[in-house]
Specification:
Layout (H helix, E strand, L loop, with lengths): L1 H4 L1 H10 L4 H27 L10 H25 L12 H15 L5
């Protein structure tokens, strides 16, 4: 929960110090922790049947990839931060494209379940 509460602070920090790699790193690590917590929450609720199970089991993998998307992008952004790229946060702009491709993949795999 602390990582969610810190999101406004780290966003402000990166806005106030856009050229400092430490501010960028704190922001990326915060998003990584929040994304991992979201993945853990999804994984726990799906394995304990606390969410709707109308989907096929083949969709489980795609949905876990979707919930891991932000942590994966955060790790890429952290690596780019260490390479001293000031615009490493732009990696998150690929999120809609990746989600669209995952949705297309799922709809092609299961045409009746799109």
């Amino acid at each position: 929960m602390l990582s969610i509460v810190l999101l406004p602070f780290t966003t402000s920090l990166i806005g106030d110090f856009p050229t400092h790699p430490l501010a960028e790193l704190v922001f990326q690590v915060n998003l990584l922790i929040a994304g991992l917590l979201f993945f853990w929450q999804y994984h726990y609720t799906s394995k304990h049947h606390l969410i709707d199970t109308d989907k096929q089991h083949s969709d489980d993998f795609i949905e876990e990839i979707q919930t891991l998307l932000i942590p994966i992008l955060s790790i890429i952004a952290i690596i780019l931060t260490y390479e001293n790229l000031a615009w490493s946060s732009l990696v998150y702009c690929t999120t809609p494209i990746i989600l669209y491709l995952l949705h297309r993949y799922r709809s092609q795999r299961n045409p009746d379940n799109s």
